[in-house]
Each structure stands twice: as C-alpha cells, then as structure tokens.
Specification:
By secondary structure, the protein is mostly helical. The chain is 73% helix and 0% strand.
Length: 130
C-alpha cells in the first residue's frame, strides 16, 4: 500500500530508495562517486534533512546546496540529461510506493530544485566566462 511523504520515517525511506536508484545509474553515479566523492554516511543524512525541511518544516538542514553543486559542475558540467535522469529516478521512486499530498509536493519541489540548479549553474558559467 502506498504511503505519503508526511513523516520523517517515510522521507528517510524514500531518500534511501532514491539514492539506490541514482547510485546504480551509469550516467549519474560517476558524478556522485567519482567527481563529488560523496560519503553516503555524511551525504544521506543531509539530503534526508533537506527533504524533511522542505516537506515537514523541520529546521535541521541549514546548508546552502549550490556551493557543493558549483564545485562538482566546475569539474564535470551538469548536462540536460543529468537533470532529466535525476527527475526520472525521483518520479520512479515515488511511483514505486508513495502517494498523497506530500508526495505530490515533493514531485513539484524536485522539478523546482532541478530547474533552479540548472539556471543557477548556467548563470555561474556565463558570468565566469565573461
């Protein structure tokens, strides 16, 4: 039975399932593992805190994610297919077991996050090339 992303436990389980997909993806995994060099033990709690902040209003997450993404982009540029694949995995993870108002909000927020990141990184590239 599907559940909504309306609790910390549901969000944490969703993020774990989502990252299982992302880190098995031959296009995305190298960005996370080889370029960003993430430690899952450090990264996953941050991402879980981010989504709990966005969906539940928790205040644990206090980082600015763009600095980390700019550093990765400087080494290996994010391309349109990266954003599309990330969103496809997000949607597939939702479809595999999450339904409801908070899940719908998460889907909308994921698109906003991807779009904002893309615009921000493209703007950063444009201003650094002038």
């Amino acid at each position: 039975m599907p559940r909504d992303l309306d609790s910390a436990a549901a969000i944490d389980a969703f993020v774990d399932a989502f990252y299982d997909r992302v880190l098995a993806d031959p296009l995305l995994a190298p960005l996370f593992i080889d370029v960003a060099g993430i430690s899952l033990e450090a990264h996953l709690p941050r991402i879980k805190a981010y989504w709990r902040k966005m969906l539940l209003g928790e205040r644990e997450y206090r980082r600015h994610m763009m600095a980390q993404h700019r550093a990765v982009d400087a080494q290996a540029r994010f391309r349109a297919e990266h954003y599309a694949r990330w969103l496809a995995h997000f949607d597939a993870t939702l479809a595999a077991g999450y339904r409801g108002p908070a899940s719908d909000r998460a889907k909308t927020l994921a698109r906003r996050v991807a779009g904002n990141m893309r615009r921000n990184l493209e703007s950063t590239r444009a201003s650094s090339s002038t």
